[in-house]
Amino acid sequence: MALPVYASPLERTWHYSYLTICALIFLFLMAPILIVIPLSFNAQPYFTFTTEMLHFDPNGYSLRWYDQLITFGMQHPEAPRDWSFWMDFWENATWMQVAKNSVIIGISATVLATVLGTIAALGLTRPEMPYRKQITAVLISPMIVPIIISATGMFFFYSWVRLPMLSFDGGVHIEFARLAGSYAGIILAHAALGIPFVIITVTATLSGFDQSLVRAAASLGANPRTAFFRVVMPLIMPGVVSGALFAFVTSFDEVVAVLFIAGHDQQTIPRQMWNGIREQISPAILAVATILVAVSILLLATVELLRRRSERLRGVTPS
Amino acid sequence: MTETASLTTSDGKPLKAALAASLATRRKKALLLVAPLLLFVLVTFIVPIGQMLFQSVHNDGFSSTAPTLQAWFKDHPEGSDIDESAYAALAADLKQMKADRTAGVAGTRINYDISGTQSLFTSTARKADTMKPPYKDAILATSDKWGDPNVWRAMRDASSPYTIDFFLNAVDMTRASDGHIVAVPSDQAVYKKLFWRTIVMSAEITVLCLLLGFPIAFLLANIPMRHAMLLMILVLLPFWTSLLVRTTSWMVLLQQQGVINDLLVWLGIIDNGHRLEMMYNETGTIIAMTHILLPFTILPLYSVMKTIPPSYVRAARSLGATSWTAFRRVYLPQTLPGLGAGGLLVFILAMGYYITPALVGGADGQMISNMIAFHMQKSLNWSLAAALSTILLVIVMIFFWIYDRIVGIDKMKLG
């Protein structure tokens, strides 16, 4: 991108205006994500910088919105911060409950999507796979079909299907319950929505996979199972993990299916944010947003490290 | 040829047959690996979509609760006189509805066609037990609306559980009192306009994404890898950040007392009394959605631009092309696959957006998804919601098919 020494003044001007344009677009990309961080420490219930904040006056900043996040929904929010306070927080605080749900649903859906998706990707990348295009189209479709349509269809189907489920009121017995309004329902829905991401990342990793390694393992006496677990699995692991992370983020960020098919007990973080934004938006939402930005930075760092590791393993050096 | 045909494996089978058998086994093994997931997606996703499609042409709210009338309509073709026997059938069904508490269900179905008829059913059903023949007079005494031929036509239509009426409604058509299909009055026509606005807004967002994504992708593709990796993080971070977080941030930035307006006032660009209205309208939806979908254009453009050798542009320059000509005639055509892939993907995703328009869209920034959600959750006209969804699904599938033809679904990449 460096400017050649013989560049004309016009080219010079254009070059620098081009760089300015790029800087502005990067600002457009990053500003909305960065702006919530300082604003979440606002001492006032405003969504803009107060004069105190602009003068870096410590009085302009506070942790009150984070405090509100912790105590919201608790039975004794004013109690001293001892062991029983934090037990109360773990048991009753609204944001804690929705965070637990998000994690339970996210992890279950991710495990389902990743296990089934990886096995399927192994089949899809075999050269003799029949109807590959058609099957891939079906498996990718949850990503393409607008979420409102998927959620509508799932609402009809999941309210209609009844599955035998264990129930624990007093004794353990089996009862036929609707999928809608159950953990099983929302986990199945989120797994379906996450599958395309697993398929895409794992098939991409497998397409760069050298099949002669499997033959080499076989020639050295490994049976197919050993060859898979000792040779294939370690090599495609980075792809599988980044697919799993995509699937997890899909579930962790999903709100429409939750709106349509989850019951009162399965509210998740985005669902609670949706409530907060629709009703009375308070800077407490910005505190949640800040925490989620931190989570996404962690996830992105993990995926990038995995990608580089995968490239190193496959012998592709980042130039 | 004869010699090849007679080749055999060591155990005496013809080679061709042995190869075919081996291929068949391997195909079966590959299919077996895919089968569990395929089954899973079929049950948890494809069947629900199928049920939604079915719901758009099937509604038994009336036909299942009014069997006597259904039989009467079957025996008396369209245009028959609505006589005492029809009212007797209606009275019998209303009595049954009262016993089963289904008058509301039946009324809801007829209410989709003629508004205000739900209460007609519930209030008449309440009095159904005391009715005595002649039923015509008894029923008309409760409300003279029952004499309205439109109500009878609507009941005749609804007496079959299968109907295309919801699709007619979804494209602003209705049945006139004589049964002919006509367009609804223009002040009630909302759906065609909304579909059109969804397409126009998606196209605007796509163009904006391509305009903003192109310079960034070009920059990333033409600087040393180390720097590109760092800048790429700025593109990927928004991609990994929760949709609701990004939408919330835009609400914070765009509102009238928000950061952008404050900044503009402070800079003296606008007057404090004339703060810009950038949210709860189309502008808000477009700005926020462009931001959310921008990474989807940058990534495919970047991967295409990485493969364009710089020597072509240099050759064009050495042959006397100005930098603009070299860019326009040599570089730009080579980026078309990336523009196509990124543009189509953004367009497809934008068409189905729901969250962002619902939160920042206000009245005129809504898209068709929001209307579907409205009918699912507020008006509870699920069949109409299903019909609208079906139309949206068909439009999206057409573009997905084009995407497949141009890019190929197996070429789709993430990050």
Automatic annotation (TrEMBL), chain A:
Keywords recorded for this protein, A-Z: Cell inner membrane, Cell membrane, Membrane, Transmembrane, Transmembrane helix, Transport
GO terms under biological process: transmembrane transport
Source domain of life: Bacteria
Domain ABC transmembrane type-1: 99-303
InterPro entries reported in the protein's UniProt record: MetI-like, MetI-like_sf
Gene3D superfamilies per record: MetI-like (1.10.3720.10)
Record membrane topology: Multi-pass membrane protein
Keyword Cell inner membrane: yes
UniProt KW Membrane keyword: yes
GO cellular component, one term: plasma membrane
Annotated localization: Cell inner membrane; Cell membrane
Transmembrane segments: 16-41, 103-125, 137-161, 181-206, 227-249, 284-306
Protein family per UniProt: Belongs to the binding-protein-dependent transport system permease family.
Protein name per Swiss-Prot or TrEMBL: Polyamine ABC transporter permease
